[in-house]
Amino acid sequence: MRKPYFLKKIPGITKLFLMVFAVFVCTILSSEIFAQVPSNKQQDSKANLPLVVANRFEIQPEQRDLFLKLATAALAPTRAEPGCISYGFYEQPTAQNSFIYYEEWKDRTALIEHLEKPYVQPLLTKFSELLNGSMVVRVYTTNSVANELPQPK
């Protein structure tokens, strides 16, 4: 096996030093890279962070009354759940039958428990029949919450 040209001209002790230095640099770089990958403990800790859920969808016009009945029936008991921070659904004023659910939950567990509640089941069971098209769901995990808007500089 031939040595690379740059190693032919370097004395033995310097070669050893360069190899040790290269191993050291690789160790430092790899530890910095792996430090950015969340550990299982860090991933599990996200289960305790507040969540914001935003669902956008359109209801078939002939299913509007049934949707409003089912959604309204679940509103008060959902807001009374201990893990619920806020929960509401709103119709877009410029697009009849287009709604958004906006929900804030204490953590992922609270949301999962909510989806298993008996007063939510009638809406969840019928929801696909009520939809006109598809639904856009966004779940945001937060790591901090401010109670005021940021001030412009």
Q: Would you mind describing this structure in some detail?
A:
β2 and β3 form a beta hairpin. About 20% of the residues have low confidence. Helix content is 44%, strand content 20%. With 153 residues, it is α+β, with helices and mostly antiparallel strands. The N and C termini lie far apart (64 Å). α4 packs antiparallel against α6. The chain is globular and about 50 Å long. The protein has a 4-stranded antiparallel beta sheet.
Helices and strands: which structural class? alpha+beta
| Residues in helix, % | 40-55%
With strands numbered from the N-terminus, the spatial order across the biggest sheet is 2-3-1-4
Q: Supply Rg.
A: 28 Å
Mean pLDDT: 79
How far the N terminus sits from the C terminus, by CA atoms, comes to 64 Å
Oligomer classification: single chain
Please count the helical segments.
6
| Cα shape | globular
